[in-house]
Write a structure and sequence with these properties.
2 domains; alpha/beta; two-stranded antiparallel sheet; 5-stranded parallel sheet; 7 strands
């Protein structure tokens, strides 16, 4: 799977390739979002790019992809068939007429690869149950899966590069499975990457959530427009207020955001997160800004505020705010708290 084959997730794909190219690959990551929006496909494309032997980089002035795997090297060709030796899947499973006891994901790995290839790696949980013939059963990821996962992670890679373990629908892990993989999260194996793909992290252990780096996969129907002039103006006004921290004008700005619908609020947070990331690239790598804020002075001066010292805190603040809005939090409180966190981070660059 290449990033170019995943519709509507260019911003997320660019963020993922930036992570790899910068050498900041976390050993455990959580892809949070609907499978239909590309969460599993993005995880697989991320693994393919990580192992690609001839990564391609592009001029993304038009707002397109900044990079992608080549699709032609031996590693990429194996990934396209999901036959890469160091790519392992764990997923909800249950007894079938042919496998009645002591079953685990390993017993159904061929069926799962066929299912993924048939559905462009974006099939739903219900369609997987139907494909496997367990529509009336509750699929789970159990203790035997955990034992096999830990064993796989302890082995040396066959291909001599990164070993990737993907847990799809990670919220379906039972407590035994979840507790057994905690040690792997706390004491990671070298050149081994654990990717948890989930649609609902509220059903997962907090200890697992806290030990994984979040990759939020937005619904493809609510992706922000990079050329939205209203968002650009809102962002410029907001950032200037946060630097000066004028409470009266900031309160008025928060009120204006509160008046928007939740989808617009989520879209703006995604826009602001991408704009901030673009500023970091402009500041640290000298890359041209993909986004034009409509203010020449701001285009020149603001990117210097985003550095390697505060980008992680800024990303965490945006992620937390997006999650709060998704959970129907009170928008005024959410945006005011987000504002204070961003203001603090900007002043500690």
């Amino acid at each position: 799977m290449q990033f170019k084959d995943i519709k509507g997730q260019t911003i997320t794909a660019n963020h993922l390739t930036e992570i790899i190219d910068s050498g900041r690959v976390s050993h455990a990551q959580m892809f949070l979002g609907d499978t239909a929006s590309g969460s599993l496909a993005l995880a697989i494309a991320y693994a393919q790019y990580l192992n690609c032997q001839n990564r391609q980089h592009y001029d993304k002035k038009d707002g397109g992809l900044r990079a992608d795997s080549c699709g032609e090297c031996p590693s990429c060709k194996k990934f396209q068939q999901l036959s890469f030796s160091d790519l392992h899947f764990f997923f909800p499973n249950a007894a079938t007429p042919s496998v009645t006891k002591n079953y685990s994901s390993t017993d159904f790995r061929n069926e799962f690869r066929e299912f993924l290839n048939n559905n462009h790696q974006q099939g739903t949980l219900d369609s997987w149950y139907e494909f496997l013939g367990i529509e009336n059963k509750q699929g789970m990821i159990r203790e035997r899966d955990a034992d096999e996962l830990v064993h796989i992670m302890s082995l040396k890679s066959y291909e001599g590069s990164y070993k990737i373990v993907i847990i799809w629908m990670a919220e379906k892990m039972n407590d035994t499975m979840a507790n057994k993989i905690l040690k792997s999260l706390e004491e990671p194996y070298p050149n081994t990457l654990l990717l948890l793909v989930t649609e609902n992290r509220d059903k997962m252990l907090s200890t697992i959530i806290s030990r994984t780096q979040l990759v939020r996969v937005p619904d493809i129907t609510s992706m922000p427009s990079s050329d939205n002039p209203d968002f650009a103006n809102l962002y410029v006004i907001w950032m200037r207020q946060l630097f000066k921290l004028n409470m009266q004008s900031l309160s008025e700005w928060v009120d204006s955001m509160h008046a928007k619908g939740r989808e617009q609020q989520k879209m703006f947070i995604l826009y602001a997160q991408e704009a901030t990331r673009e500023c970091m690239l402009r500041n640290l790598a000298g890359l041209p800004l993909k986004l034009d804020f409509g203010d020449a002075k701001f285009n020149t001066s603001f990117p210097t505020m985003i550095t390697e010292n505060n980008i992680e805190k800024l990303n965490d603040a945006f992620n937390d705010a997006f999650y709060a809005i998704e959970r129907n939090a009170y928008a005024k409180i959410t945006f005011m708290e987000l504002s204070f966190r961003i203001s603090k981070a900007l002043k500690k660059r």
